[in-house]
Each structure stands twice: as structure tokens, then as C-alpha cells.
Amino acid sequence: MKKNLVKIGVLVGVCLVVSHFSKTVLSEDGERRSLISYADEVVAQIGDSLLFETGLTQHIVDSVGAKVALGCLENSVDYFDTLLFRRVALSVLERNSRIDGAFILLLKKKDGANVRLEAAAYWERKKDSVEVTNCTRDNCLLWNSESLIWETVSKDGGLSSWIAPHFNLLIKKRVVTYACEIKLSDSLFCYVGADYTVSKVYSMLNGWKAGRIGYPYLMNNSEEFIAHPNSDTRTLGEIGRAYGEETLVKLSENIEDTARINPTDYYHLNTVSKAMCWENVVRLDSLGWLLGVSITDQQVYSNPQYFNQQRKNCMQSSFAYLGGLLIFEILVILLLFRKEEVASLVGGTVLIIFIVEIVLLCHISIRYPSIDFSDMEIAKSASQKSKLLREGVENNKDTQKISTNFDRWNFSMLLDEDGAKDYVNLYRRGLVGKTDLQTFLVPVGVYVLTVKFTDSYTTTLSGYVWQIIPYGQNIQPGILFPDAENSNFDHKDSAFVVGGNHEKSIFYRWHFSTEIREPFDYKRFPFDYNALWIRIWPADMDKNVILIPDFKSYNLIHPSFKPGLDNDVIIPGWEIDGTYYSFKEKSYSTSFDSNQSNFKDGFPELHYNIILRRDYFDTIITRIIPIAVLLFMTYSILWISKREDALDVAIACAGLLFVAVFEHVNLRKNMDATGVIYMEYYYFATYMLLVLASVNAILDSRLSRYLPEYLGFSKLMVIVYWPLLLLIVLVATIITFY
Predict the structure, then answer these.
(1) Topology of domain 56-196, CATH
(2) What mean pLDDT do residues 2-27 have?
(3) pTM for the whole structure
């Protein structure tokens, strides 16, 4: 009967432990579901923005086409040769600054089905101007046997609304085309159309907040990519087969069968980012396209305040759950077993529970690392949340859902221009009434080629940095790294550039090599995260210049895709979790110039951050396993020693203590850390147990001489040895990670 009860008690305990681990895993699964749910909203917003953009272009082209129909008569060929007619296509470009090209084709049907090109004009948007190309039937690259438009018209007798993607032979770029047909007479008709380059389409998609969760892409019904970060021209299935990714092949096979793909069914190693991702794909029926987003499975880069609270909540739950389980198991043992059996069984139960708790706490600390955030980030968070809630009330939206999503997905880093401008506006509001100085926004970018640790706190980096100064603003070009001990900037080139909205700027680029001292925190070693950051200042300190990231220079901006970091960068002993830009609130207590009213208080200083996660497997091999061997040897000495072996036990413990101290000193020397680090608690526990083992042997030897009935502490030490060790480690884990 007792054996059966024991089995039941053990089974219940095991089930409870397994259920707690399952609960933790399900909690993480809930995090993933929350991420995918948020991604659904982002995809819907991107889809709405894309439909609005394409709808606007369709309206422009259709309305221009209607004007052509009203203005053209039977002598339309003569009318086409006039400047007024050629300006028809130009008006398409003028009404939408995102369109990259516009064309008009005049066609004539002869002999029934034969179609002949009479003339054509194509306007291409350049960086600083628009250029027109007049074509005839003999030289028109828009209208030849290699043109997709020619194939579509000649075979189908008319253009579909959207043709995507195809290669425009005239401008030598892959484009997406919308065209409308205008019938002028029974034999004469023309087409007015607009082109987006595929790079422009991707830039638009990526600018609609997709960078917060991954990267977007767009496909036609044949699974050819209209927009892709690598401008890949292969189909989805071809990419999957080329990289051996069966998940992508499966997605390709099933994509025609549903209006929406379930992301959880397609979890794979992304071929672009080399990170684990889900695929969220929806069909845009009005366009006949497929919009997708690769959702990166890396949730550390969300609201740091949320993550810190989530870590504490998980740990508190773990304390309560496993503490209750420990009490339950001890009560079962006390009720069912004799007194002489209770001690060893309780010791074994405590041992198992403590191991589970330590592993669980370390797992939670890795899953939800501690992240610091500034007062500016807190203020920005509160300001944005209040604004969203007000808009939600005005638009009769679910404010509870808005609040929950914001708390979960309010990113602290800069992932798009809107986020950067939010910080800047917050700073500007703080300047009201203090100074009338104008603030200037200057985009900068960083590309790091090499990273090398020269010691525990010094890092050598090299790469490129660039700056885009708006034309006409008297700002001194140049970049400073204020934390650098040694820096070298080699000016490479500069150029006059014109942006998509015709804004003029001057572009400067430098190659840099620098040595930076970083205040790394090794307190949580070997489960530590550290941020290697580059503080970036403008060279012109006389003006109120605020540097912001040049988002347009990066195809992939999500931190897990490591924007601004070369793919070949390797840092021994560390894994690179991601890179991102952020603002840190700084107060300099000086104006840096003769204008004493220009004190930079709460100034948004731009940082480029590289997040490093310790490769703890190496530490387990080189640090934890040797300590475990020492502890097992100490335990074996306690197990086999006799009272008359006191001197031998003391000598053996002294030898083991010397080895432990040597390893400890070596750790401190290599880390050069300040304060106590997590790994040192293992050494402290080892010292304590070695001393206790020696004291136990001496007491047993001495007291047995004077007290013949003395039973000794050896049996008790054998029982409490492992629970005492793990209790010390558990307390240290709680102090370090909670």
C-alpha cells in the first residue's frame, strides 16, 4: 500500500513539474501568438495603404485617359506630335510624386487583328528632373517583341489593369505598370500608363511600419516577386528549393488554396535575414496580388518596460508554484514514511525542486533580459499612448485593445521616421519658452565592417559613416564619436542629391576606425546581455542639430536583421542578437558655444547599438563543469571518509580549495569586472562546502574522543550537502536576475 502511495506522490510531483514547464512554454507560445496577432494588424494597415496608393494611381491615370478621349479627334496622330499631347503623360507624374515613369502609346489596328504602333512618349522621373523620350514604331523599346506590354496587347487585344512585374527596356529597370485603354475610333486607340520601379514599391511597403516586425514583400498570382528586399526575381517555390527550405515550398504549393495563410504553419529559417520567421500572406483581390510579411521570431526588441515586468511576473509565478509543490511533497513524505527515512527523502525532493527552479530562472532571464530605458523613452511612451487612446475614443475603437497592444509593442528603438520624429517633437516641446533656436534634422547612417575586443571594456571598430545635410542650411559637415579614445575619419566622397520629394541635399561619406571604451555590465555572466554602442554627435555644435537615422539607406531595419552591420562580423564568445538606432536623453550642462541660451538639456543623442548575447555554452564547458567536478569530489570525500581520516580530508579539501581559488582569480582577471558577478556565487558556494567538509572531519575526530556516544555530523552533511549548495545558488540567481 505504502509503495503505491509513494508512486502516486512521485507521479503527482512529476506531473506538477511538467505542467509548470508546459505553462512556461505555453506562456512563450502566447507571446508568439500575440506577435502574430499584432502582425495581422500591421499587414492589414500595409494592405490598406497599398490599396490607397494604387487606387490613387488608377484614378490619376483613368482621369488623364478620359481627358485624352475628350481631346482627340480622327487626326490624333497630328495631335500627338504637339507639346500638349505629350504633356498628357507628364501630368501623371506631376499628380503623384511616388510614380517613377509615365507613358502614352498611340496604336492603330490594321487588317483586322494586326496592331501597329504609331508613336509613343515616355516620361521618366530622375532624382532632380523628369526626362521625356519620344518613340516611333521603329525605335520604341516600350513596343517590341521583348516588351511585356506588347505581348499582353497583341495576344489579349487590351491591357489588364496592372502588369507586375516586368522589365522596362527603355529605363532598364523592373517595374510595376498600370495602364488604361482609350478608344479614339474603330481603328485608333491609345494607352496611358504609370510605372513604379520595384525598388520604389518595396520602399513604400517598408515605410509603412513593417520594419517593426520583419520585412514585407509583394507577389503576383504566379508567385513572382513584385517587391522583395533582395530584388529577387525567382518565384517563392524556386527560392525554397534553392535553399532547401521545404516550408517555403509547402507555402508555394498551398498559397493558391486560401485567401489567407496561417503564419504558425510556416515557421522556418529566413533566407534573407538568417533568422527564424513566420510567413503571413494575404490576398489583395482587387489587384490580384499577394502581400506577405516575414515576421521575425525575436521579441526582445519590444517595450523594455513590458519585458522587465514580464520577467518579474514569470519569476514570481515560478516562486509560488514550485514553493507550493515543495511544501506538498514534504507533507506527503512526513505522512507516509518513518522518521529515519524522512531526512534523505526531503533532501532529495529539495534537490530536485531547486534544480528545476534555478534552470527555470535562468531560462526566464534569457527569454526576458533586463533592458534599461531612459526618462525620454518613458515620456514618449506615455505621450504616444495618451494620443492613441484619445484617437480611439473619437473613432469608437476598442481602447482596451489599443492599450494592450501599445504596452506590448511600443518599441523603444528607432525603426521608422515617425518614431524618430516623435522623440524630436518631444524634445522640441521641452524647448518652448527656453530658446528660440531652430532645430535641424540631419540623417546619418553607419555600416560597421569589423568589431574586435581588445580587453573587457575596449572595442575597436571600423566601417563607413555618412551624413545628408539639407541643401541651403549652413551646417558644418562632419561626425564625432565622443566616447572614442582614438578615431580616424577618412573622407571618401560627397555628392549633391535630390530626394523623392525633390528635396535637395548634400551627401558626405567617411571611412572610420575607432577605439571605444564601453561600460559593459558583467553582473549576469555567463547569461549576460551587453550593448556595444556608438554615440554619434554632429561636428557642428553651434547649431541645434539633431541627428536621425537615414532609414532609406537600409532595406531591412528590424534589429534581428542587423542593419548597418556586415554579415561577416564575428565576435568570439558572443552572439550578435541585433542592431538598432536609438535616442538617449542627455544633459550636457554647457552650450558648447557663445550662445549661452543654447544649453542642451534633455537632448536626444543618437546611438547606434549592437546587442551582444553571451555564448554561455563555452562558459559551461570551461567554468561550470570544472566546478561541478570539484563539488562531486568534495561530496565523495564526505561519503567515504572515516573519523580517523580527518587530516587526509583537510589536506584534500585544501588542495581542492587551491584549485577553486586559482580558477576564481583567473575569472576575475579575465573579466576585469566591478562588483560581484553571478558566476562568482558558484565559487563562494564551493569555498563554503570545502570549509564545512574540513570542519566536519575535524569535529568528528575530536569530539568522538571525548564523547563515546557521539554519532557525528557526517551523515547530516551528506544529506544536506546538495540542497545547501543549490539553496546558495538559487538565492544568488534570484538576487542577480530578479
Answers:
(1) Beta-Lactamase (3.30.450)
(2) 52
(3) 0.76
